[in-house]
């Protein structure tokens, strides 16, 4: 796995000429995730999943390039929390299309959009970018991670991970809860306010439908707490398992669609 922004152009040419290149584009957002997690949580998680996906694609013969993360996205549900930033969906869509076009110009025509942020408008914008690039035969595109299709999201993020949850209400774990806190404790612990986690009460009793369908903002659904579930159930060890298994899952989704190139 190589990071596109950290290599010189002749190396890109060599990889493109191999015909085995796949580019992973991590996509996140700047959004509150409770008082204990950084605003860049979803971007950093997408990067961690890109790293845990890459070895499985390499085993299948691919040369994996990871493009610089899109750190901005659509974040309307949490927009009232300090620091949350939101793009219009069209802006995100245009960014992805233009990045896909530029990559294809250099012969990099397999693009995996690996999205770490669950937001209906954000995911729809990524889907639309995929359709625009695909219909114009500019590049082959797959959306993985959080996507509009719930079955694909489950295949990437939920398959095989339930056993690691220590929360008494795994069905109520969501934004800023056990899963995300665990991933942060494992993959970017220096950004976690660990000292306040013991003071965070469980937030299980929230309006799940309003949360999933984004009919109310995060501030009112969470009583100003900004997290859903129980951050105290999180451990770095759980995070390690989640990142590993989700990497396997995401690679499986990609290889099911595109096969190996050995
Ligand atoms: Zn998140």
The arrangement of helices and strands along the chain is EHEHEHEHEHHHHH
In spatial order, strands of the major sheet run 1-3-2-4-5
The shape is globular
| Beta-strand residue percentage | 5-15%
What is the β-strand count? 5
Question: End-to-end distance, in Å?
Answer: 16 Å
Mean pLDDT: 97
Ligands present:
zinc ion
Structural class: alpha/beta
Set down the secondary structure blueprint.
Blueprint: E1 2-3, H1 9-17, E2 21-27, H2 41-59, E3 63-66, H3 89-105, E4 110-115, H4 120-135, E5 140-145, H5 150-158, H6 178-187, H7 208-213, H8 218-221, H9 236-258
Parallel strand pairs: 1-3, 2-3, 2-4, 4-5
Helix pairs in contact: 2-6, 2-9, 3-4, 5-9, 6-9
Bound molecules: zinc ion.
Overall description:
The chain is of the alpha/beta class. It has 9 helices and 5 strands. The protein has helices spanning 9-17, 41-59, 89-105, 120-135, 150-158, 178-187, 208-213, 218-221, 236-258; strands at residues 2-3, 21-27, 63-66, 110-115, 140-145. Strands 1-3-2-4-5 form a 5-stranded parallel β-sheet, sandwiched between helices. β4 (110-115), α4 and β5 form a beta-alpha-beta unit. The longest helix is centred in the C-terminal third of the chain and has 23 residues, at 236-258. The two termini are 16 Å apart. The model has no long low-confidence stretch (mean pLDDT 97). Zinc ion is lined by residues 33, 41-42, 117, 175, 180.
